[in-house]
Amino acid sequence: MIAIQNISKKFGKLTVLDGASAQFNKGECIALIGPNGCGKTTLIKSILGMVVPNAGNILFNDVSIKNEFLYRNNIGYMPQIGRYPENMSIGQVIDMIKKIRNYNSQLDEELLDLYKIKDLLNKKMRTLSGGTTQKISATIAFLFNPDVLILDEPTAGLDPLAAEILKEKIIKEKQKGKLIIITSHLLSELDELVTQVVFMQDGKIKFHKNTEELKTDTQMPTIAKAITHILKATVHE
Amino acid sequence: MNRLIKFVVLDIIKNRTILGYTLLLAIFSWSVFGLEDNATKGVLTLLNIMLLIVPLVSIIFSTIYIYNSSEFIDLMVSQPVKRNKIWTSLFIGLSISQILAFVVGVGIPLLLFAPLNIALSMISVGCMISVIFIAIAFLACAITHDKSKGIGVSIMLWLYFALLFDGLVLFLLFQFADYPIEHFMIGITMLSPIDMARILILLQLNVSALLGHTGAIFTDFFGTIIGTFISTFVLCLWAIIPFYLSLRMFNKKDL
Question: What's the gap between Cα A234 and its chain centre?
């Protein structure tokens, strides 16, 4: 569904992505992990067209995304830090996105209800706490029933209850056969979710394995332990 | 596209700064025509005020507005909206609101007090100057990432076009007074939209005494009709080129 071919990105002298390639397919739930500053967010932003790579290609359903924008109709994106126009209310932001998306099918308002956002519609974006902003981001990402969900640190800043709701929602969408890409540092919560692990370091994709393979390779019982094992090994190198 | 433009215009009107600007322009215009009983003199005074204030407000307000819209831009870029569309909508939205402010503030008194043809050319020149300086603001924003730097660049550009440029022209004239640089000076004049606008209005008013050195050469060289045509054309270029450059930069920008 999404093919990343050899993309590189430099910010000035700093090389953030260095020839990264990967293939993500329908029905997979991918955990994108790696140390801070390894290029996870830049990779995600490249898929969304927010960052323009210096070299390489990204294909979405076999079509290059260069100068394209309609493919984003199929993507729900939850940013790490949601930034919204400050003097708009929650209701106005959601309405604006609805109008821009021009989506005619049934909206997925499950998170809107579970997070009780309907009670907050008149609140201005600048008055919201970080956690509430994250809830809005999550709601918008799931609202249009997209085929692909890209979640950048989805549970950071959410209270345990809200995080649990989000996790259940992710599992539900995964069962519908959607492609889900998650970056997270909270390894323990990935266990029940992910089917594949992509490990990035220094702008390169070090490996891309499915979880069973990863567990047998490292002889660890959980993904969290397997990844910590790998991280320790790479630090010692 | 229309939705985005509508959103930007409504957002700017809600902002109220633009209402203050309209009021300020209206106060200036009404008091100018109230004090002067000669309409031509009134138009000239108004022209000088207009050529100072309109560029300043257009460029500074637009620069700040674009930087403050960074969240809006971020949000839209991750949605299925073309980048061209986001940037152009911001530009058209800002242009509409600035033009509206100008037409309400200056246009109404002009239509009431000045001869119709002069009033109309003043209004169109004012609108063009607004759009030109909005386009320059877009270029300044596309070049600089940092907000305070961008506003600094905008202020410098305004100072340059509104004040320094005239000084530069005078300096050149005095330095090279012994050489035939008249035609060269025509080219130089085209480098300043404010000078072009001034010449365009003075051509209509037929007050050659006030045209100044470059204006006199300009009229002499082109004649009134071709002169009007050429200065209008140059003014259009001044709006199109900076905006086009900024659009190209924005399309490659990382957010």
Answer: 24
pLDDT digits (tens, 9 = 90+) for A36-88: 888 899 999 999 989 999 999 999 998 998 888 889 999 999 998 888 888 88
Residue B184 is encoded by which pair of tokens?
């060269």
Domain count, chain A: 1
Beta-carbon separation of B75 and A51 below 8 A: no
Cβ atoms A152, A80 nearer than 8 A: yes
Asked if the Cβ–Cβ distance from A100 to B14 is below 8 Å, we say no
Q: Is A11 on the interface with B (CB under 8 A)?
A: yes
B26 forms beta bridges with none
Show residues of chain A in contact with B76, CB under 8 Å.
100
Among the partner-chain residues B7, B71, B252, the one whose CB lies closest to the CB of A84 is B71
Cα angle at B19 between B16 and B21, to 5 degrees?
Answer: 115
Read off the DSSP letter of residue A184.
-
Query: Which of B4, B80, B254 has the CB atom closest to A51's CB atom?
Result: B254
Count the domains in chain B.
Answer: 1
Distance CA(A24)–CA(A164), nearest Å, equals 25
Where are any strands of DSSP class E within A102-236? 148-152, 179-183, 196-201, 204-210
Q: Do A72 and B7 touch (CB under 8 A)?
A: no
Its sign, for the CA torsion B78, B82, B88, B93, is: negative
How confident is chain B (255 residues) per 10-residue block, as mean pLDDT?
86 89 94 86 89 94 93 89 92 95 94 90 94 96 91 94 87 83 80 87 73 69 78 92 95 85
**pTM to 2 decimal places:** 0.89
Report the gap between the CA of B94 and the closest CA in chain A (Å).
17
Where in the sequence is the domain holding B109, given as residue range(s)?
Answer: 2-252
Nearest chain B Cα to A84, which residue? Answer: B71
* Contact (Cβ atoms closer than 8 angstroms) between residue B121 and residue A140: no
Give the CATH number for residue A41: 3.40.50.300
Helix (H/G/I), strand (E/B), else coil: B243: helix
Contact between residue B42 and residue B113 where contact means Cβ atoms under 8 Å apart: yes
Q: Taking CB atoms and an 8 Å cutoff, what residues of chain B touch A49?
A: 77, 83
Contact between chains at B254 and A87 (C-beta distance less than 8 A) = no
Cα A201 from chain centre? 18
Convert the pLDDT of each residue in A157-178 to its tens digit.
889 999 999 999 999 998 898 9
* Rounded CA separation A22/A6 (Å): 8
Among B3, B71, B77, select the one facing A85 at the smallest CB separation: B71
Q: Which residues pair with A200 in a beta bridge?
A: A205
DSSP conformation class of A177: T
User: Among B55, B49, B65, B51, which Cα is nearest to B17's?
Assistant: B65
- The residue range of the domain holding A224 is 2-236
